[in-house]
Amino acid sequence: MSAVDPTEPAVPPASSQERLKLTEIFLSLQGEANAVGWPTVFVRLTGCPLRCQYCDTEYAFYGGQWWDIDAILAEVARHGVRHVCVTGGEPLSQKRCLVLLRRLCDAGYDVSLETSGAIDIAEVDSRVSRVVDLKTPGSREMARNRLENLPLLTARDQVKFVLCGREDYEWARDMLTEHRLAERCDVLFSPSKSELAPRDLADWIVADRLPVRFQMQLHKLLWNDEPGR
Length: 229
Prior knowledge:
The chain is of the alpha/beta class. It has a single domain (19-223), classed as Alpha-Beta Barrel (TIM Barrel), CATH 3.20.20. The chain has five helices and nine strands. A nine-stranded mixed β-sheet has the order 3-1-2-4-5-6-7-8-9. The longest helix is centred in the last third of the chain and has 13 residues, at 166-178. It is globular, with a radius of gyration of 17 Å. Residues 1-16 have low confidence and may be disordered. Substrate binds at residues 29-31, 44, 87. GO terms for molecular function: 4 iron, 4 sulfur cluster binding; carbon-nitrogen lyase activity; magnesium ion binding; S-adenosyl-L-methionine binding. Its cofactor is S-adenosyl-L-methionine; [4Fe-4S] cluster; Mg(2+). Its EC number is 4.3.99.3.
């Protein structure tokens, strides 16, 4: 690995087709979705085409280092845990992410992918649990939602809404019904930090008896927004 120009695009050198640009690899507790609480290795890829106004990982937009996929697998193995989460940024913005996901599954890990929902998920290995965002009006990136992904979701997957207020909640509730999301997979509703009181969101879900899972991000409760945690 070597330092790179932070403005360099996430395109690997022509001499290597088995590399990815990474911001970090670290061991922590999974803070959300179905694997919440499990010790998990996070592989954070660099780069994202979206600019959600509440993003908490802007440091992953640029920079990073090139890693051979073999080196990524070796670093994951060094931590000695079963769960691996590939995240970003937007990991699918690097095409070789699909290779990494397949190889992690082949190695026997319980693999999840955190994706913005703006990129086609059809080619993601079927063994991967795909955690797919649906961007709300409050995110300012709603136009980037790739709704063609929704029919591809299975019981292994999850849809996540980060909600900034009552308007977002009502929009998400309508999407839940229109696309019958709870019949496809688990649906997660999360309050955007500092924009929506968790208690308010919890009360709305209970009042409407929505078939969704309320969640707060465990890692933020424990470590705030500290990178690498």
